[in-house]
Amino acid sequence: MEDNIYQVYEDEIRSLEEEIQMLAEKYEDRQQESMFYSDEEILMSIKSFQREFQGESKERESPSDLKAQLESLETDLSFLMKFTGIWFTRHSKKTVEKTGSRTIQKHRLAGNCHSLPFQLEFQLLEIKNKESVSAVITNLNIIMESGEYSGVSKFVSSIEEHGNLLPFFRSLSSYAEWCEHRRCTFLHFK
């Protein structure tokens, strides 16, 4: 009986050690992310925020206006998700490198398109010129469950080579919609 109690305590200790390790890694990531910004950039951001806050405090919108805006945005988002069938369930972003005119961020997305799950991992390279900002997707990796949807693997490989997400989402939406129609049709005949 005492062995079981000790085992429970040891399991709890291991769990806490794992949680501490995970939190330490998150802390290190945030420390690295904050090191990419110079003191001048931080001061400029603080001053910009203060100017915005002072301007906002003079012209604060009423809670009912903010609630109406939020409801409008939620309605628009709901419409887009129903129209495309694409639902994002997770997103994470991590700054890998930041210099004066160049920023590299690593993105991870997960979601469903109709009943078809997908995951994306890519790096976004942003280069700022005096007039504009250009962005390029690199290291694109698309993860989709194989098996029933094995016909997409060649298409996914092509998209990964070219690094263009727009055709991926357009084709995924259409493909998943037709897979759903096909599934419903076969269920009808069963």
Automatic annotation (TrEMBL):
Key words, A-Z: Coiled coil
BP-aspect Gene Ontology terms: CENP-A containing chromatin assembly
InterPro entries for this protein: CENP-P
Signal peptide range in chain numbering: none
GO CC terms in record: chromosome, centromeric region; nucleus
Coiled-coil portions: 6-33
Protein's UniProt keywords contain Coiled coil: yes
Pfam families for the chain: CENP-P
Taxonomy, superkingdom: Eukaryota
Protein's UniProt name: CENPP protein
Species of provenance: Nothocercus nigrocapillus
